[in-house]
């Protein structure tokens, strides 16, 4: 009899303890702060730091600009052409000429590369009529187009460029023409034939 009463008391005490624990647990859950209210919120975010992606546009076809003929005291559009077999050499020299013109306050219209030309060197055998390939030479050309160069300053600029001209680079300064613009674009005879057939 006594044992059953003590057991009941024990079970009653355990029940009260569990109810207290559940109540305190609810209180703890109620005062729990959400993730967004913590001071460490947003530490790993980086998307807002990235630049917005601009949709890619199709490359527009290069259109010919109006050629300036110049005046009595100023040249119009001039092309400074640099040609070499060494790509690295001609590229760096073109960059130097471009920076020099900017430093001397000479207006640079544009700086561009011409299509690479390939030449095959053939030689004839001593005994025979068959030609054999000896070497393949690739010619690289860069053009810096300037405008409004003073006629009095032109020889000074040319002398500065020639004094720093590297060995193996051919330099040519000439007036820009429509033929120069057309030679800049690669010819596509197959496409031209198809367009001619369609029209």
Automatic annotation (TrEMBL):
The keyword Nucleotide-binding does not apply. Keywords: Mitochondrion, Ribonucleoprotein, Ribosomal protein, Transit peptide. It is found in: Mitochondrion. InterPro entries: Ribosomal_mL48 (IPR027487), Ribosomal_uS10_dom (IPR027486), Ribosomal_uS10_dom_sf (IPR036838). Residues 79-174 form the Small ribosomal subunit protein uS10 domain. It comes from the Eukaryota. GO terms for cellular component: mitochondrial inner membrane; mitochondrial ribosome; ribonucleoprotein complex. Pfam families: Ribosomal_S10. Coiled coil: none annotated. PANTHER family: LARGE RIBOSOMAL SUBUNIT PROTEIN ML48, MITOCHONDRIAL RIBOSOMAL PROTEIN L48. Belongs to the mitochondrion-specific ribosomal protein mL48 family. This is Large ribosomal subunit protein mL48.
